[in-house]
């Protein structure tokens, strides 16, 4: 069995003998004295030595009492604990009470865990039944009804993944066509003319399926709903937060942003 503890507040009756250089120090050697642990009635540090040692019948330790008397550098204490049996019984009762409490709490936890386990088993069985019924319906060729709201939502955003994947090559293609259209070389302008028509056709198809390409304008206010700022440029002549450069347009599918416009914003110099 592990050593029982001594606590602050414990009342102990002690016989104390204090020695220094084999001479008894009367002022620190009371007999059958009753002390309350923690009050340091004998001398500072005495009670802490008792607590540190735990519950014993006898104690032996040294204290430096040179702050009281320069000659008391190393005072030896021999202590007989007359309250050993009483405190031992008290600690054992406390331990028993704690064990009973822990046991009751453990039983409650066990009951709760069992209830949770049973609930999970019921949920599992319910899910199994639903899967089984669904499988039977499929096997029997029965029609499964999906709410119209879900059907409409699926229809609205069925092409989202396609447009997300298509937006990057489309943006690159569009940028190349626009750059060619601004060329001073007439042959280049003529060459990209056909691609401009193709771009218009693509955008018409996009619009038909609910895709809107929203192009920001230089000097506009930043709109976090459809735009993301990727950098800032210092412009003390412009209001902060204005669009200074556009890297890509925004793409919205039936009002939902599937790709944000990437823009560079203005800010004041420090």
UniProtKB/TrEMBL annotation:
<comment type="similarity">
    <text>Belongs to the GrpE family.</text>
</comment>
<keyword id="KW-0143">Chaperone</keyword>
<keyword id="KW-0963">Cytoplasm</keyword>
<dbReference type="InterPro" id="IPR009012">
    <property type="entry name" value="GrpE_head"/>
</dbReference>
<dbReference type="InterPro" id="IPR013805">
    <property type="entry name" value="GrpE_CC"/>
</dbReference>
<comment type="subunit">
    <text>Homodimer.</text>
</comment>
<feature type="coiled-coil region">
    <location>
        <begin position="87"/>
        <end position="144"/>
    </location>
</feature>
<dbReference type="GO" id="GO:0051087">
    <property type="term" value="F:protein-folding chaperone binding"/>
</dbReference>
<dbReference type="GO" id="GO:0005737">
    <property type="term" value="C:cytoplasm"/>
</dbReference>
<comment type="function">
    <text>Participates actively in the response to hyperosmotic and heat shock by preventing the aggregation of stress-denatured proteins, in association with DnaK and GrpE. It is the nucleotide exchange factor for DnaK and may function as a thermosensor. Unfolded proteins bind initially to DnaJ; upon interaction with the DnaJ-bound protein, DnaK hydrolyzes its bound ATP, resulting in the formation of a stable complex. GrpE releases ADP from DnaK; ATP binding to DnaK triggers the release of the substrate protein, thus completing the reaction cycle.</text>
</comment>
<dbReference type="GO" id="GO:0000774">
    <property type="term" value="F:adenyl-nucleotide exchange factor activity"/>
</dbReference>
<dbReference type="GO" id="GO:0006457">
    <property type="term" value="P:protein folding"/>
</dbReference>
<protein>
    <recommendedName>
        <fullName>Protein GrpE</fullName>
    </recommendedName>
</protein>
<dbReference type="GO" id="GO:0042803">
    <property type="term" value="F:protein homodimerization activity"/>
</dbReference>
<dbReference type="GO" id="GO:0051082">
    <property type="term" value="F:unfolded protein binding"/>
</dbReference>
<dbReference type="Pfam" id="PF01025">
    <property type="entry name" value="GrpE"/>
</dbReference>
<keyword id="KW-0175">Coiled coil</keyword>
<dbReference type="InterPro" id="IPR000740">
    <property type="entry name" value="GrpE"/>
</dbReference>
<keyword id="KW-0346">Stress response</keyword>
